Amino acid sequence: MDPAGQDINLNSPNKGLLSDFLTDVPVDTGVTARPPAVEGLTEAEEEELRAELAKVEEEIVTLRQVLAAKERHCGELKKRLGLSALGELKQNLSRSWHDVQVSNAYKKTQETLSQAGQKTSAALSTVGSAISRKLGDMRNSATFKSFEDRVETIKSKVVGSRENGSDSLSSPTGSGDQTLPDHTPF
User: Fold this and answer.
1) Positions of the region Disordered (predicted)?
2) pTM for this structure?
């Protein structure tokens, strides 16, 4: 856009537009445009409603001012009593948690979760019993007995050689003359 062709009147509704296409239309800021009256209302009723609306809006402003003053006073009292925002937050959270706990939805959820927990516990107990039984069966098997015997043999050789004062272990190949290297740090 060419800056020379722009409308630079800051009060103009055509601000920033080319003046070739639009012309300035004066805007009357002193008179507020009234919307047309609602059908079925007389001018007197409309005026009465507008007066009541103005009164209610004024009361709202007054109430907001009173509320702001009361909140400031409340803050000053809390400050003088040493009450902090954190303490107040804790109290609000505690109160909210209590409200949640006494709600019907929480009670129903808690009951459902409790039942689910009991069923899960029973299922895990059954699985535990089954595993225990299988391990018992496995321990009584010939393979496990053979493995257990081998471990006992190795254990007796290790414990027996230490009781005899020897630190040497017999090799699984039968050559018992090899000793373990000394790895003492000092």
Assistant:
1) 155-186
2) 0.31
